[in-house]
Specification:
The complex is a heterodimer of chains A (about 120) and B (about 110). Chain A is about 0% helix and about 45% strand. With about 120 residues, chain A is an all-beta fold. Chain A is globular. Chain B is built from no helices and ten strands.
């Protein structure tokens, strides 16, 4: 079955960076885009961007473009999301989520990781 | 950005009764490729990731009970739970999958009356 398993919770200081991993299994890793979505306390879900695991190409929400990176390691079937210059309002649960379409993107999400809590606090 | 607005923010329904959640998009989200509305619904329970229920505004995801249905057109969409079960207590969010950034509604909390 499709599984996305994320790395554990992180506590970071303002200005630091965080790198969250998402290991995929149960399907062809290069066949599906992976998106990242976050949810801050009391806020709605927020889309951060996507990565194409086949090419490594990625697109980000404009809000995050200056400080977000997405990469992948095909040998490890893992994608990574790194967010830099962290602020207190980056405190959130970060999710990776799979795009269901195998011939491109549909931009909705059929399988999700369990979530990684990132806390930014001095 | 497309703004997604849900109503109500919370809803209490008796077991076996109908629950209706509304979602309004700030612009048309009709896909040129298949003439379907690019609207998804998710169920979100505490401590769990969101679960996809509906996409293309009315297509039920595999394995989702048929008491969940989606409808709508233009900028107004609805998620209906025809007969509320105890396990349906959750927050429900809509999401437009039409254009980036792919935005979500603020969520509607469904409880048992």
């Amino acid at each position: 079955q499709v599984q996305l398993v994320q790395s554990g919770a992180e506590v970071k200081k303002p200005g630091a960076s965080v790198k969250v991993s998402c290991k995929a299994s149960g399907y062809t890793f290069t066949g599906h885009y992976i998106h990242w979505v976050r949810q801050a306390p009391g806020q709605r879900l927020e889309w951060l961007g996507w990565i194409n695991p086949q090419t490594g190409g990625a697109i980000f929400a404009q809000k995050f473009q200056a400080r977000i990176t997405m990469t992948r390691d095909t040998s490890m079937t893992t994608v990574y999301m790194e967010l830099s210059s962290l602020r207190s309002d980056d405190t959130a649960v970060y999710y990776c989520a799979r795009d269901p379409w195998t011939r491109g993107r549909r931009n909705y999400f059929d399988s999700w990781g369990q979530g990684t809590l990132v806390t930014v606090s001095s | 950005d497309i703004v997604m607005t849900q109503s109500p923010d919370s809803l209490a329904v008796s077991l076996g009764e109908r629950a209706t959640i509304n979602c309004k998009s700030s612009q048309i989200i009709l896909s040129d490729s298949n003439n379907k509305n690019s609207l998804a619904w998710y169920q979100h329970k505490p401590g769990q990731p969101p679960k996809l229920l509906i996409y293309w505004s009315s297509t039920r995801e595999s394995g989702v009970p048929d008491r969940f249905s989606g409808s709508g057109s233009g900028t107004d969409f609805t998620l209906t739970i025809s007969s509320l079960q105890a396990e349906d207590v959750a927050v429900y969010s809509c999401q437009q999958h039409y254009s980036p950034p792919y935005t979500f509604g603020q969520g509607t909390r469904v409880e048992i009356k």
